[in-house]
Amino acid sequence: MQPAVSNYCSRSGSKVMDRSRMSQGSQDSADLREAHETSDENIAPTIILLKQNATGTEIIEAMKHPTNGLSFINLQQNFPNLTFITADAVNWLITHMEGISTIEKGIQVMQSLHKENLIRHAAGNATSPFLFGFYLFYIISNDKDEKDAFQPNGDLQSFENEWMEVEVKPPLNWGLTISPVSLQVPYTFSDRDHGVPHFLCEDIDAEYSDCDLDGLMYKRMRLETDVPGKSDRAEWGHVRYQTVFRPDQAYELVVEWLTSSGSIIFELLYGWHRKAQSCGLQMIPIPHDPLALPYSNKSDPLRGPIFVPLNVNSLEQKERLFKEFSEDTYIERLFLFQEAIVQRFGFISCQVEPQTKANSSREHQYIHATGTYQLQHPRLNIVQIVTFDIIQGRYSVHADVVPSPHEAYITRHVSGKNKDDYDNSRKMGFLWSWNHMVSKRWRTNQAVDNNFQLKLLKDFREFCSNSEDRLRSFWHESWEAKGIASCTNKEKSIKKDSKK
């Protein structure tokens, strides 16, 4: 799912209130419009930028300015005064402070305010770190007039059970984005900045998407399902949501209920779906087990993914696939090559929570931009004893290694009843599954019908099988992009030498 993180921001969203305001009469509307135009002509909004060396107290006072200050959440229940959203505060600093031009610099300033004990988490917990995204913080005030206001008790667990907080991180761009906190060496060449595919870059990182697996991936909270109060009994549920949102990845929100009726749940989820569209996002339902792989005896016997083999032997018949790189990177480069194909067909990555830390990098799932397909391609475990035949382009796994359930599933597709067939070159490919839960009601683009789904699967199969030499052409185009980048690097080096 891709729910909107901004769904929980403070905005009215009430069309009834808007209509009631507009029904006061045409004369009142004309007077208000005239007064508004007059005030716009007489008052010119001026923004005085804070100095780069401004103290924490000066920044806090500028935030509390009634005109040019930060926007606060005006909710009287369970919130202290001057409560704000962390992403709004960082964006406010970018436009109101000198020298703050990036989100990373804005986060550093807010973290310094947190260390100075000028701001704190809305739960009142002083140890909660400042994170960019939809996190609720408030400005600590020493005014005597605000002592009667709501004061948080520091119970973070109770707060997280009522409010959904999500950290927003920058896109990974399929491993091509260089972290802003990494070491930047001036006047150096980076092939990632010149259109070279990731699998042909000099420095690759096949585990770039595992950067969010170190911390807590999911949190839980209580969900009030019957918000309009239509039911005559108490109905509630739970939400299991991801703690990190990235713009180029799918975001998962799991709704669990036992004491709620189906009609109430549908109205709630479909209301979220409409709000997500207004935020420029797409929210779609997915099955609990998207690929229905035989991991356990409880797997659905009537569903199963379609195996689409990848014809890697058609790329280089006589020479090595990655002849210019170290042998230690062959497996990772082949994995990134498969991911480049997935990207080419409009899929985005889905972060999968590993069962154990041992198989954290074992499988990678993707969902199509239309939400109608799911894809997975397994990745060999480094713990296994794996050898790579460079000339044949095949993997051969040691005979005493027991295959995982998805490997056994692929084996049954490509080798029939022959259980001793461990020719992994034939098993190189993808698992394709339909998202049968996306009906016409959930589709934002009505042109995506069943015929479109069949055509895309057919096109994906033909590409992976090298029909009309398409896969091989993509391979050569990628190498040409690397060659052009190398020539550009040589020209720059010659110009620098001539200047010296």
UniProtKB/TrEMBL annotation:
Domain of life the protein comes from: Eukaryota
Alphabetized Gene3D superfamilies for the sequence: Winged helix-like DNA-binding domain superfamily/Winged helix DNA-binding domain (1.10.10.10)
Domain DEP: 83-142
Region (Disordered): 1-38
Pfam families: DEP, DEPDC5_CTD
Compositional bias segments (type: Polar residues): 1-13
The name this protein goes by in its record: DEP domain-containing protein
InterPro entries, per the entry: DEP_dom (IPR000591), DEPDC5_CTD (IPR045838), IML1 (IPR027244), WH-like_DNA-bd_sf (IPR036388), WH_DNA-bd_sf (IPR036390)
